[in-house]
Design a protein that fits this description.
Layout lengths: L10 E4 H4 L9 H4 L3 H10 L1 E5 L5 E3 L6 E4 H6 L2 H19 L15 H16 L4 H8 L6 H10 L9
Parallel strand pairs: 2-4
Antiparallel strand pairs: 1-2, 3-4
Helix pairs in contact: 5-6
């Protein structure tokens, strides 16, 4: 469904070297102002593949994206696709001068996270994921089960959150 280069070695890459078909992602106009902005982001966003236990995140200093090697190799195509959409929302927020890691709120209550997850959940539904799969996507290692339920509730995602 998506053209993702999973066999990359640790190093620095362009977005298109990791997500070969990123220019075809129909959700990009919902994130960025226009084609010019999309082209600029695709051309200038650096991606670092690292042999660390990370999933994917945006650096708050330069808006580069880091992907953990294991995550790149093992996550489903759908989850990697949703991750890059989520992180591109953060790239946009960074361009707006927003602090992506404001510690005054918990992760699941941060405005930047809720905004990025709203776009991601909308896209997850568009590509055919049901609420159970989306709830699974929202379950990340750095939040508690209670925070997971709170995040899912804020995003109107049902599914079996007790499993």
């Amino acid at each position: 469904m998506f053209r993702i280069h999973r066999r990359l070695e640790p190093g620095q890459y362009r977005l298109t070297e990791v997500f070969a078909d990123i220019r075809t992602y129909g959700i990009l106009p919902a994130i960025f102002a226009d084609e010019e902005e999309i082209d600029r982001i695709i051309a200038n966003t650096k991606v670092f593949v690292v042999d660390q236990p990370y999933e994917m995140f945006v650096n708050n200093d330069d808006a580069s994206i880091t992907i953990g090697l294991t995550h790149l190799r093992r996550a489903s195509d759908e989850f990697l696709y949703l991750d890059i959409i989520h992180e591109l929302c953060h790239v946009k927020q960074h361009m707006q001068g927003r602090n992506l890691y404001d510690r005054s709120s918990s992760y699941v209550d941060r405005e930047t996270e809720i905004e990025a997850y709203r776009v991601t959940v909308q896209e997850a539904r568009r590509i055919g994921l049901n609420d159970k799969a989306i709830a699974n996507y929202l379950q990340v290692s750095w939040i508690t089960p209670e925070e997971h339920k709170r995040l899912a509730s804020k995003l109107d995602v049902g599914g079996n959150l007790d499993a």
